[in-house]
Amino acid sequence: LFRNLGRLISRGHMLEAVWGRNPNLATRTVDTHISRVRSKLGLRPENGFRLSPTYNYGYRLEKITDSEIDADA
Fold it and tell me: How far is the C-alpha of 5 from the C-alpha of 48, rounded, in Å?
């Protein structure tokens, strides 16, 4: 995700790139790992990052500015 900062990355792409699995496989593996990564790395607006899900597609990691943090508060 950090290599693709700001880009929307599909769950299928992550399954294939990280685990070498079929990208069409129905699994919650990506969602489970994203949740753990978000917690362990502190990927929250107050820490300067937003890891946003896109329904039924994937995730986008964004670096956010102080003004965006204030607007979210």
Answer: 12
> What is d(CA 35, CA 51) in angstroms, rounded to the nearest whole number?
10
Phi, psi of 72 (to 5 degrees): -75, -20
Residue 21 has pLDDT above 80, yes or no: no
The conformation of residue 61, written as its DSSP 8-state character, comes to E
**pTM of the model as a whole:** 0.77
Per-residue pLDDT averaged across 36-63, rounded?
A: 93
Range of the domain at 25: 2-72
Give me the CATH number covering residue 9: 1.10.10.10
Question: How would you write 23-59 as a 3-class SS string?
Answer: CCCCCCHHHHHHHHHHHHHCCCHHHCEEEEEECCCEE
